[in-house]
Write a structure and sequence with these properties.
Elements (H helix, E strand, L loop, with lengths): L2 H28 L15 H10 L6 H13 L13 H36 L6 H13 L2 H15 L22 H7 L3 H37 L3 H8 L4 H38 L5 H10 L3 H29 L6
Length: 334
């Protein structure tokens, strides 16, 4: 990736994030409802209400409100949550690691499972099992993540209660962590008991988020492998006596992985968005779960901070995806 291309993408990312901030800021203030009304007590006076509105800058005009908020954000001040009465940046710093670990675990699971199934399906393409693989993958593809979450709760939380239904870790173990990246920290510090506990809490959310993505990866990669297997270089390798497994893994997979990476990056952004519902179902303490509470309470500063975080994550994932695609296939460089 050239310096010009990198600068252009970063510039477009900044413009996109600014546009998201403007749209969300305006929409949150034109919808019906007053967030201050949810904070005041029944006996509050007009002076108390006016003071509270002034504290959150809601007594200014819309352009002035946006300018005050934008300059504050650029200086690292995301405001104070109306419902939780805490600094928004602190809340995001507490909850974001949980969502990042959950999304990363779901992505790793989906990529590994998708590649394994796609390669297996390619190896079985001339057998009677091939239609069965396609049928099962189509079934998994049709089921959204929240349906998987509800099904997993019913099966492994109620009928066969083998996994924890909610939370991220046993509350007794939570105090011993120096960071909010519990999974990574427990792995690096060799705290295997905590690692096992965290993994058990993550299994059902990871399955719910990863299974639909794994189905998409399987479908795209299987089609790319099928196209690669009829190319001349594959025929030449076959004439040299190379086995079918080696043909798929060593020759075809290397050339078919590019489109899969691009699609996986796009789908990963949707996976991060999907954590909102899945985290709610499993009471997982991430930014997705917090986003629902913020919307219910019409917590404007917290919603704005959450939207900026989601927008920044989407942009960073897309930039990383573009870099990976170019790394695997330099001819894709614009």
């Amino acid at each position: 990736m050239t310096a010009y291309s990198f600068f252009h993408r970063v510039l477009m990312a900044a413009i996109t994030l600014f546009g998201v901030a403007v749209i969300v800021f305006v929409l949150l203030r034109v919808v019906p409802g007053d967030p201050i009304a949810m904070m005041i007590s029944p006996g509050a006076s007009e002076a108390d209400i006016a003071a509270l509105r002034a504290q959150y800058g809601l007594d200014q005009s819309l352009p002035v409100q946006f300018w005050i908020w934008l300059t504050s954000v650029l200086s690292g001040d995301f405001g104070t949550s109306i419902s939780l009465r805490r600094d928004v940046l602190e809340l995001l710093a507490e909850r974001l690691p949980a969502t990042l670990e959950l999304a990363a675990a779901a992505l790793v699971f989906a990529v590994v499972l998708g590649i394994v199934i796609a390669v297996t399906a390619t190896l079985l393409s001339r057998t009677k099992l091939s239609p069965l693989v396609d049928t099962l993958n189509g079934l998994f593809l049709a089921v959204p993540d929240f349906v998987w979450a509800l099904a997993l709760v019913l099966i492994f939380g109620v009928l066969l209660p083998v996994f924890p239904l909610s939370g991220r870790i046993n509350p007794d173990s939570q105090e011993g962590f120096a960071t909010q990246f519990y999974l990574l920290e427990s792995l690096l510090t060799l705290r295997f008991r905590d690692l096992a506990d965290i993994s058990l809490h993550m299994i059902m959310p990871v399955l719910a988020l990863g299974l639909p993505l794994a189905s998409i990866i399987t479908k795209v990669l299987k089609e790319a492998l099928a196209e690669a297997m009829v190319q001349d270089y594959i025929l030449l390798a076959r004439l040299k006596g190379m086995s079918r497994l080696r043909l798929v893994l060593q020759e075809a997979l290397r050339n078919a992985i590019g489109p899969t990476i691009a699609l996986t990056g796009v789908q990963f952004t949707f996976l991060i968005g999907g954590t909102v519902i899945v985290e709610r179902i499993f009471a997982y303490p991430g930014i997705g779960n917090m986003a629902i509470d913020a919307v219910i309470n019409r917590d404007l500063p917290l919603i704005q901070g959450l939207v900026l975080v989601f927008g920044a994550l989407f942009i960073l994932v897309n930039l990383a995806t573009d870099a990976l695609v170019v790394a695997f296939n330099p001819r894709m460089e614009a």
